[in-house]
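Structure (tokenized):
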């Protein structure tokens, strides 16, 4: 699917959204020790996780932990999970970055590691969990930052260019004149 100027608009625009998306960096609240950090997709948007960065500090309890990112539905059921392959042991600190199309992987037991996640669009009410398999009650997830693409889903979201007719005029959006004339869904 393309805009009038043959610019790809993706699978979520304009059919499911009210205009073009935008990217935003967001800090996720730090959870209690032994708990996962969670980001919930608001009711006004679909979102695509581009990258996530978090730190796992493990307790002195001897056990293996495997940092991971999980996509969950509104009921908390895991729909997709991406786990590192190298164990983080007791009294360690590891910072992981999970990113779309990362390519190479660097799974480490201490220091900085990175891993790939697929390019997936999450619907309103879905969530993203940041934790580790084998997480001890005294382990701490912290410094969680996410870089997300946002796509508004209705008039309660992005007010510019909206009306009751579910149409969107690219020319009214910043930089939209380059995309050509208006498009309707």
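Design, position by position:
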């Amino acid at each position: 699917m393309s805009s009038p100027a043959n610019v790809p608009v993706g699978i979520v625009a304009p059919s499911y959204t009210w205009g073009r998306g935008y990217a935003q960096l967001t800090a996720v609240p730090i959870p209690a020790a032994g708990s996962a950090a969670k980001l919930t997709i608001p009711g006004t948007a679909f979102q695509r996780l581009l990258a996530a960065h978090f730190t796992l500090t493990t307790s002195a309890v001897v056990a293996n932990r495997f940092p991971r990112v999980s996509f969950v539905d509104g009921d908390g059921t895991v729909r997709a999970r991406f786990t590192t392959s190298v164990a983080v042991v007791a009294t360690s600190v590891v910072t992981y970055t999970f990113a779309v199309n990362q390519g190479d992987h660097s799974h480490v037991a201490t220091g900085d590691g990175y891993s790939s996640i697929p390019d997936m669009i999450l619907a309103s009410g879905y969530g993203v969990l940041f934790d580790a398999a084998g997480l001890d009650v005294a382990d701490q997830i912290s410094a969680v930052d996410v870089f997300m693409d946002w796509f508004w889903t209705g008039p309660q979201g992005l007010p510019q260019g909206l009306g009751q007719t579910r149409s969107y005029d690219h020319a009214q959006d910043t930089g939209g004149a380059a995309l050509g004339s208006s498009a309707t869904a």
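Reviewer-requested clarification: The radius of gyration is 19 Å. The chain is about 0% helix and 40% strand.
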